[in-house]
Design a protein that fits this description.
This protein is mainly alpha-helical. The protein contains four helices and no strands. It has one domain. The longest helix has 36 residues, at 2-37. The chain starts with a helix and ends with a helix.
Length: 102
């Protein structure tokens, strides 16, 4: 019975920690989104960095886990980030927008 109590208390603490981490990541996402909206170069660089790391994580996940469902889900999940990263990296209009002087 003691093990069950300790397990439940640990899960409650872990869920609280995860909630705080998701809140922090969400606030960072909002902060970067506002920076992108306002044309801040740091926000473009931050999104490109985080997006590239996320894509790398998806590729590594596909290599490690050979399940067809995981591979399909990762490929589908990579479509939008690849499009956004391509737009931020290669569009002349985007480069001009983020390189303008304020």
């Amino acid at each position: 019975m003691l093990f069950l109590t300790l397990f439940i208390e640990g899960m409650i603490a872990l869920s609280g920690l995860l909630a705080v981490l998701f809140l922090i990541f969400g606030l960072i996402g909002i902060f970067v989104g506002i920076g992108l909206w306002r044309g801040k170069r740091w926000a473009r660089i931050t999104y490109i960095t985080i997006g590239s790391l996320a894509l790398l994580n998806s590729v590594i996940s596909m290599i490690i886990n050979h399940s067809i469902s995981t591979i399909i889900m990762n490929i589908i999940g990579m479509i939008l980030p690849v499009l956004i990263l391509s737009y931020l990296l290669f569009s002349k209009k985007v480069k001009a927008y983020f390189n303008r002087r304020k």
